[in-house]
Request: fold
Amino acid sequence: MSILVQPDTKVLIQGITGGFGATHAQLSLEYGTQIVAGVTPGKGGQVFESKVPIFDTVDEAMKETGAKVSAIFVPPAFAGDAIMESVDAGMDLIVAITEGIPVADMMRVRSMMEGSHSRLIGPNCPGIVTPGDGPESSGGCRIGIAPGYIHKKGSVGVVSRSGTLTYEAVWQTTLLELGQSTCVGIGGDPINGTSHLDILKLFNDDPDTESIIMIGEIGGSAEEEAAAWAKENCNKPIAAFIAGATAPPGRRMGHAGAIISGGKGTASAKKEALREAGIAVAETPSDMGSTLANIL
Amino acid sequence: MNIHEYQAKELFEQFSVPSPQGRVAETAEQAQQIAEELTGQVVIKAQIHAGGRGKGNFKNGFEGGVHLSESAEEIGIIAKQMIGQVLVTHQTGDSGKVVNKVMVAQAVDISKEYYLAILMDRESRAPVIVASTEGGVNIEEVAEKTPEKIIRETIHPLAGLQPYEIRKISSNLGFAGDTAKQFGNLLRALYKLFISCDCSLVEINPLVTTPDGQVLALDAKFGFDDNALYRQPEIEALRDPSEEDPREVAASEFGLNYIGLDGNIACLVNGAGLAMATMDIIKHFGGEPANFLDVGGGATEEQVTNAFKIILGDSNVKGILVNIFGGIMDCDVIANGIVGACKQVDLNIPLVVRLEGNNVEAGKQTLANSEVNLIAADDLSDAAEKAVQAINV
Reply:
């Protein structure tokens, strides 16, 4: 198994005709992912790359194709609406790749989602990969923008707020022959759908996941909350890295959520909380894989 | 993004949040004219973003960026000594900031000072109103020493601010009668402003009551959600590039995410998390990062070239570390950008390059075939170590 998505998961892409969405829809198809539908309002009836039918609405696409997961590649101004459309249609999982959604929009989206059964991953995230058995891990489920070939089917669960740092961790665990069960980018925004803690719980219950790498960064308190839970409840070894030890306070470091405000959310406080919970903290981003290997 | 005090006041007026009468002036004559329209004591304030204006000094010898006077003529004379001059405060650094405008406003008598703020709270994923009877002081200290004096009210994002919430906050602040009514109007107007302008923070410190029964916002601090600026053209127009780091202004023109720091090893990285981690690893090996620079996931050759120019424009920089994990991004594009930049600028400091990922062999070949004098690194640790060594030779 794996968490959230499997090789046979049927995926729909909102914004499949945009440049960014099209590029990554194509890469996911090449990886072997079941991309069964696209949605672009006004382009219903067209076909993407002569195989994926395009619909005007998520509701219609779901009914016709049985898609259960939606990936959002819609520009920031329309992304909040796109997420809500998928929630309303009853998607199990919504993965929002879009970067730059206004915070007020995400606040309303999260509020609107209360009581629904949909889970949101992101926004501003690289997506999810469950590696497959094929060459360069193909045959798996790739939703989002991560490079497929760096993965290897295996036992490490990876959860991260950052895209390229996830790739570092994935690549290191691939080189160490450990491989990954599932890799989840939860995104770098201050208001997101799924936290480190939510993913740790799923990894803890997943028989295919034997160990976990958790990557965090400055800002907020999500890493501390995950650490507190892990201390009491997680029965799998965890290695972690926190980015931003040298970041100046009060400045937004690329990600909207990566900001130390009012002296809170510093890297040192997070590392301290992780160590206190018995989590092995990597000193540098080069050591994420080896730090995990050392505790296995 | 920060705005000037006079711009905050103009936003207050637009949304009917009461504040003392006054306006901004760009010349001494205008300043005097505004003062003539007011009665009694008038305050004149130099308009720069940095704090500590009152205790700051001008490079022309004039003391203080904030003055009081009852004479309009004197306000004009003071304005003349401020406008176009450089003000140095504890927050501006030694170079100071040029004062282009002054604000002239009615000085008010204060009965009591309060604190009032609305902020976008990431933990509760909702707007939160924070209020206190302890105004005019550092609110973080109040929160630490006397947490019972801090009122927090979480507003439902879809329902918005309700009348009962206003009554609750007003009552907790001890307002009654007409004062409560005025405070309620002010808070309602402030919440409308907060939502309409996509603010991340509006802080009034102090909010004051006056002996003649008014409730006024005396000073304000604003924060805006950068992600929402596309739909807030009027707010974006308030940006004052002369108040920002010129390197950051230049970078933003090319769609680069750059933050200047004090160290001497510049870095160029793809991805915000990796860019932060690259700064950290430089420090880990005993170096000091000169900047945060994320070229993004879809950088072009031109962007890389411009990123190099910005990095090299910083005279503190003694070495450069390029760290690229090309997931989807083609490493060869980065390599061509580096070669292109080195043709246009005279590179005479060590350059360490670590390339990994998509099309990495072609990228390494492009660099090897070029005339660029660089140090190749195997992984991120190796790159950081080599960069630190290179500048310490």
In short: The mean pLDDT of chain A is 95. Chain A touches chain B through 63 residues (CB under 8 Å). The radius of gyration of chain A is 18 Å. The CA atoms of residues 78 and 101 of chain A lie 8 Å apart.
